[in-house]
Amino acid sequence: MERFFATCPRGLELLLADELRQLDAAKVHAVGGGVQFAGDFFLCYRVNLESRIASRILWQVAASAYRSETDIYAIVHALPWTDWFDPARSIRADVSATKSPLTSLNFVTLKIKDAVCDKFRRLCGSRPSVDTREPDIPIQGHLTDREFTLYLDTTGEPLFKRGRRVAAREAPLRENLAAGIVRLSGWVPGIPFLDPMCGSGTILLEAAFIALDIAPGLGRRFAFEKLKNFDVQPWRELLQHCAARQKLKAPLGLYGSDLSVEALQAARSNFAAAGLEKVVSLKRADVLDIAAPAKEGIIVTNPPYGVRLGERQALAEFYPKLGDRLKKHFCGWRAYLFSADMRLPKLIRLAASKRTPLFNGALECRLFEYKMVDGGMRKKKAEG
To answer: What is the pTM of this model?
Structure first.
């Protein structure tokens, strides 16, 4: 049984742990920034193909105590690199650290690269080239105050790059974070789903993939395909199984709107590229003017949050109007607003029933839950 580590956006670790258990992973343990788990390489293939939450799947090949860069070189050099890939493959080494006593991560990275190349040169007479942009075999090291752990990245391009988004606007939401937000909303297929500020449609697309049971990794390649132990037959069978279980593409009760013409064009292009233009209803509309498309449902959206002074002032005027629209026209709905603007809950003038901390890259955000009941949450609490 091999050991793996799945990285994910911070705040989604427990969701990812549940997803890995559903995929039959063993020894699942959530930590900051990801989840440790164990299984065979077929599980590695499956998680890369089917996980909606993970960013990368790292195969642990070493874990040992260290005191110096010399120790790290020895640990890496002792590994059976020629059993894992050919010297014709390209590599890149990256190192992260938490409370490491070593002062230069760049020097540690160089030591890892030298150890790998020296081992190949001694055994094969040639060594892998270094490709810092698109390596065949990405290598990742992590240092704590006492332990050095080394991984081979089985993913390659991060898993949130589904390969389906052809049009993106400024600062798009990453797909795996969008999928996690949809999961946190509690939405299940069959419940009306609305994103009234949909941008290029990332949140709606992830909801559509969930509803149609489309594996997010279909149609892309992975780094594990370049390892010597790659078993092509079970991989092809897994691809066929995932493709066969997809549901018919019919209207799903997914609704999206945006005031921007360019945003709607991008969303339509992305749904068309995925062959899903018929499953969603998209229209140009101002969120402050729209009506509920059904009696009950779930809103999941990523409102704008300004950085410049003029934007912040405009949003201070916008949030109260948004809260008023939700309260008056979406009774019976639950709204989930994902934002980095910590002024939102005060300015929107609604009582948040839940606030979930999440990170969009390094940016700290919150997912605010609002239950639209008759008279608003404040009245409901007062009656209680």
So the answer is: 0.93
